[in-house]
Each structure stands twice: as C-alpha cells, then as structure tokens.
Design goal:
Layout: H1 14-26, H2 34-40, H3 44-50, H4 53-56, H5 59-69, H6 77-86, H7 88-103
C-alpha cells in the first residue's frame, strides 16, 4: 500500500490531522498527544480521561477515520508497536517495492 496523499486526510478531525498523517504515512507516534496515543493503542478509558473538551468531541470522528483509512495502524499496543517498527505506509511501500524487485525474473531486472 502506498502512502496516502494529503487529501485522504480531509475527513480526519482538523485538530488531529497533521499528527495522524505523520502516523499513518511515516509511522511516527505523536509524542506530545496523550489522547491520540491512547486512541491509537485502543485505550478508550485513558483517551477519555486525558481528553480536553475540544478533543473529546472529536474522538468518534477520529476513530471512524482511522477505521476507514488505515485500520492496521491502530487498535492495540501490539498494532502500534508493529506500525512503529515498519515505518508506516512509506515503510510498507518500501518493503513491498524491495520484495517486488527481488522476485522479478532475471531477464526483467
């Protein structure tokens, strides 16, 4: 899967958009956003506990966006760790390209 263009994030709540784009495409966890970290790890109770009023109203649209746009990048601590390890969609794309190159018949290389 190739990285998503900026327009793919139009449905993501604006308050989270830049950090989500970086997370999905680059696999960089938003360090300073405890609400977003909790959501990505599937820790709803923690997300609600640390949310400010302005973020609280955006949690449902955020979860909907993540579930539609890139369901494999969130939902549990294990999925977050794996997404960090692979480096987001850029990392997955690079791995895929390297695999495709490795399995090409010799006459096509």
């Amino acid at each position: 899967m190739k990285p998503l263009p900026p327009s793919a994030f139009n449905d993501c709540p604006g308050l989270f958009r830049e950090e989500i784009e970086t997370w999905v495409n680059d696999g960089e966890l938003p360090i300073d956003n405890r609400v977003l970290q909790a959501v990505l790890r599937g820790q709803l109770k923690q997300a609600l506990r640390v949310s400010t009023r302005d973020k609280l109203n955006l949690l449902i649209p955020l979860v909907r966006f993540l579930d539609r746009a890139c369901p494999e990048c969130w939902g549990s601590p294990k999925e977050v760790a794996e997404w960090l390890h692979v480096g987001g969609l850029y990392g997955k794309s690079k791995i895929s390209d390297e695999y495709d190159e490795a399995i090409k018949p010799k006459e096509q290389k």
